[in-house]
Every structure is written in C-alpha cells, then in structure tokens.
Amino acid sequence: MFVNKISKSAIYLFFAFASVSTLLSCQPDDAVDGNGLTDANVDASFTITPVDGAVNTYILEAQTKNVIASKWNIGDGLYSGKMTEKISLPDAGTYKITHIAVGRGGSENVTTKEIVVATSDPLKGNLVKGGNFANAADHAQWSSCNLSPSGAAKWNFKTGSATINSNGGWAQEAMYQAIDVVKDKEYTIDMNVSSNDGSNETWFEVYAGTTVPASGVEYKDNKVMGLSTWDGCAKAAFSGKLSVVGCVKNAAGVISNTVKFSQTGKIYLVIRCGGNTFTPSGITISKVEFRGK
C-alpha cells in the first residue's frame, strides 16, 4: 500500500510538471515583441507654432496618441518635458529642434525640425560677445587677468567651448569682457558647465562688477554664481546649466543668477576659477549668456 501511494504521487507530480512545461512552451519566444506591450512605431511628430504677440516664442506640440512621455532638445541638451512646450529663442539663428517620443515598453522614436529666427530679441538677446566660442573671432572677445603667471592655471579655447586646466596648488586664472547695462533693469547670467571628474578645494565663480579687472589682482566685485567644493558641488563629475548645477551664493547671500545695477554704464563679466586639487579633465564652459529679463 505504501509503495502504491508513492507511485501515485510520482505520477501526479509528472503530470503537474508536464502541464507547466506545456504552458511555458505556448508563450511567444519574446515576451515583449508581438504581444502588444511595446510600440515600436510610436509617432514622434510635432508641430511648431509661433506665439502671437510674443517675440521669437514658439509652441512645440507633440502628437499624443500612444505617447507616454516626451523628451526635447532645443540646442541646450536633452531634457524630459511635456507633450506641449513653450520655448523662447531670443537670438537670431537656425535651431534644430528634436523630439523623442517614448511609447509602450520604453520604445523611442525621433523627429527633428528646424526653426529659423531672423532677428534677435532686442530685450532678451545675448549681450555676451563670443559666448559660443565658435571661432577665433569669438575667442578674441575675451581678455585674461593673468592671475597665475607661471601658467599653472590657464583658459584654453576650442571650437565651441573654453576649458580651464590647472596643475592645482591654488593656482587660478580669470577671463572677462565688458558689457553695457541699463540702470535698474534685471539681467540673467548663465552658461553650460561640465567636467568629467571631480575636484577638491576648488572654486569656479562668476562676477558682474563695475571694477575694471587687472592682471595679478583677484577679482571680488559682485559675485553672482558659481561652483564650490566647500559648498558641495563640483566634487564629482557634472554637466548642465550653471544655474542648475551651481551652489555658490551671490553677494546678497542667496543662490540666483539674476542681477541688476544701480547705474547705466559698463560692467565686467568675469569668470574666475582655481583650486588646490583640480579636476584632471578641467572645467569646460560653453554658451555663455547675459540677457535682459
């Protein structure tokens, strides 16, 4: 009797395993493809509509059918956005607008269109000359303060960017240019900043002061924004707008990239950087902007 019960149990187990195997064998080879969970043909198309009464302002509207998320790039890098985005392009030029539509299962498709801006916005246009570092003419718009005569810290210009490299040991260097401003008008300052590595005991500071920069003199007039390992940023690799990844407080003791001035005239946009243990890849900047609000 005991042997007979064991035999029956073994038979039941055999049929149970056989049933599971049969169910599994009926599943598609790919548990995702072909079962409706992934939309490989998600539509990334979008429209561009100028906003009436607004200068160089546009509405980007993605089609929404079967789209669960949108990513956009209007020239400053990819970001997660909404299906409908309102953008401002204050500077004249041709802009490549890219939309990535995310569908079911995480599948993505891309559509790219161009916007041609014929004339810069007279109020919000970029007042920085050579802020794109596009060529030698752009590079020539910037002057050096020569804070490290030994050359231990130095700005190096490339096509589309400028990088400060340093051997450390508290060496520093600054570059600057003059900008004309209007009394009591608000302006915003920003730029793309990046580094492949972190630093220690290092600062990257942006000033907008009325004091004329001088070689060998550390600039300290009206600090606006920046990076600082003492304040908790630039200790690891970073990339993004300085207004986003920066952590340095301005002269008023708050984190802000907005400035205004008590008189009409000339101010100096100064970028000063240095430190003790400096990132081996340097700190790179691009698309430096100084705009009216």
Question: Can you walk through the features of this model?
Answer:
By secondary structure, this protein is mainly β. The chain folds into two domains: 72 residues, Immunoglobulin-like, CATH 2.60.40.10; 157 residues, Jelly Rolls, CATH 2.60.120. Strands 9, 10, 12, 15, 16 and 18 form a six-stranded antiparallel β-sheet that branches. Strand 1 and strand 2 form a beta hairpin. The longest helix has 24 residues. It is globular, with a radius of gyration of 28 Å.
- CATH topology grouping of the largest domain: Jelly Rolls
The parts where pLDDT drops under 50 for at least 5 residues are 1-35
> In one word, what is the shape?
globular
CATH class term of the largest domain:
Mainly Beta
Count the strands?
A: 18
CATH architecture of the largest domain: Sandwich
Count of discrete alpha- or pi-helical segments spanning 4 or more residues: 3
Strand content: 35-45%
What is the residue-averaged pLDDT? 89
By helix and strand content, what is the structural category? mainly beta
* Major sheet size, sense and barrel closure: 6 strands, antiparallel
Radius of gyration, Cα only, in angstroms? 28 Å
SSE pattern, N- to C-terminal:
HEEEEEEEHEEEEEEEEHEEE
Number of structural domains: 2
Which quaternary structure do these chains form?
single chain
Terminus-to-terminus distance = 93 Å
> Helical proportion?
10-25%
